[in-house]
Amino acid sequence: MVVMDLVIKNGTVATASGGAVLDVGVDGGQIVQLGGTMSAKQEIDAEGMFVLPGGVDPHVHLTPPRTGPGLDSWADNFEIGTRAALAGGVTTVGNMSFPRKGEQMSEGLKRDVEDGLNSSLTDFFHHPVLLDPDPEALEEIPELAMAGHPSVKIFLSFKRFDRNVDDFLRAMRVAAQAGSVVLLHCEDAALMGCCGELVREAGLTSHRHYPETRPVVAERIATERAVGFCEISGAATYVVHLSSQAALDVCRSGRARGLPLYVETRPIYLHLERARFDEPDGAKYAGAPPLRQEHDRDALWAGIVDGAVSTVATDHAPWTLEQK
Length: 324
Ligand SMILES: [Zn+2]
Known about the structure:
- This protein has 324 residues and is an alpha/beta fold.
- It has 3 domains: 3-51, Urease, subunit C, domain 1 (Roll), CATH 2.30.40; 57-129; 131-324, Metal-dependent hydrolases (TIM Barrel, Alpha-Beta Barrel).
- It is 37% helix and 24% strand.
- It has helices at 78-87, 105-119, 135-146, 159-163, 165-178, 189-201, 210-213, 216-233, 245-256, 267-271, 294-306, and strands at residues 3-15, 18-27, 30-34, 39-45, 50-51, 55-60, 90-97, 123-128, 151-155, 181-185, 237-239, 261-265, 311-312.
- Strands 1, 2, 3, 4 and 5 form a 5-stranded mixed beta sheet that branches.
- The site of zinc ion has 5 residues, from loops.
C-alpha cells in the first residue's frame, strides 16, 4: 500500500453530493483518495468534526483605495487579511481593486495583482472597480475579461453614479457582451445625502443614529434600479452585501422573472441587529449598509434556505474603531 503524507480520519466529509464519514488521503499537497483503506506518515483524527473544502470569500478589501498623507488607510493588508481568512477556513479571496486618481482599472489591477502575489497567503482574484465610465474604461472591460478579470464593481452609493448613470448603463451593456459579472453596491447616494443632512440638522450626531443615515429605503430604491439595469442591459448582476428584507424581496421577484441576478449577504447581517448601535462602542458595528432589524435577519436566513441569497461573503473592510 502507498504510504501517503497525511490521512484525515473519521471526519464527516462534505463532497459535491452530500456528507459522509470518510477518510481523506493527502499526498504531495493534493487530495488523492476519499474513503477506503489508507496509511500515511501523519494522521489527524477528525471524529465528530466536519471536513470541508476551502472556502471562497468573494468580497474583501485588502488593498487601500487611496494612500497618502492625511488619507485613511486600511487597518490591515493582504498578508494579515489572508492570514485571518485561512484561520476561518477560507482559501480564496476576491478583492476589490480600486484605481487611484488618474489611473485606469488595468493600472490599479496591475498594482494589486503584484501586491497579492507578494503578500497573499491564499489564492485570490480581483474585482476591478469602475469609478469613471469614460470610453477608455469601457474599452477595458472586455480586455480585462479576456485577461482573467471577468467582473466589474459599480457603486450606486457614490454621487458620481447619478452624474454618469447613462455611461454606467453603457458599461453594463459592454459587460454583458463581454460575459463579465457586474457587482453593484445598492444604496441610493442622493437619499443617503439627504438623510445625513436631516440627522445632522436634528443634532443627532452620535453613532447611535448612524443607521438613520443609510435607511432601508435607500437600499430598496437602489436595488430596484439595479434590477432594472440588469433587465435592460442583460448583464449578470451581483448585488453585494444585501442587508434588508425589502431589498431581498426586490431581488427575489427579479430572479423569479428569470433575470441573471445574484444576491450576496454578510455574516454581520445574519448574526447582528441594529440594537448593537446602542452599545457605548457601537461605532465598531458601522458598515455600509448598517445593521438592520430582526425581521431582516430572519428574511436573509430564509433567503439562504430557499436560494434567494446566492452567496455569503464577509465584505471584510478593515477599519480601526477610531476611524469608524
Ligand atoms: Zn465591499
